[in-house]
């Protein structure tokens, strides 16, 4: 179930992993925070960023892993 995520959680993850995600990736994740990308050559499953904004989202993040 895709749902938006606040950019602060993406930035927090970038900091923890010492990486910088592309703008396109961050924009997609801010809109749907996960999902799938299916092309002719590849299939990707995008795992959501951990959203601590409320208990319901924390449970959804936990149950989707």
UniProtKB/TrEMBL annotation:
| Residue ranges of coiled coil | none
InterPro entries, sorted:
Knr4/Smi1-like_dom, Knr4/Smi1-like_sf
Q: Which Pfam families match?
A: SMI1_KNR4
Question: At the top level of its lineage, which domain of life is listed?
Answer: Bacteria
Stretches assigned to the Knr4/Smi1-like domain: 4-63
What protein am I looking at? Cell wall assembly/cell proliferation coordinating protein, KNR4
Q: Which organism is it from?
A: Cellulophaga lytica (strain ATCC 23178 / DSM 7489 / JCM 8516 / NBRC 14961 / NCIMB 1423 / VKM B-1433 / Cy l20)
């Amino acid at each position: 179930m895709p749902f938006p995520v606040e950019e602060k959680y993406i930035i927090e993850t970038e900091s923890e992993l010492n990486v910088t995600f592309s703008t396109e990736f961050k924009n997609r994740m801010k809109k749907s925070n996960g999902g799938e990308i299916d092309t002719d050559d590849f299939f990707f499953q995008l795992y959501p960023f951990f959203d601590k904004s409320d208990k319901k989202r924390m449970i959804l993040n936990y149950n989707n892993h």
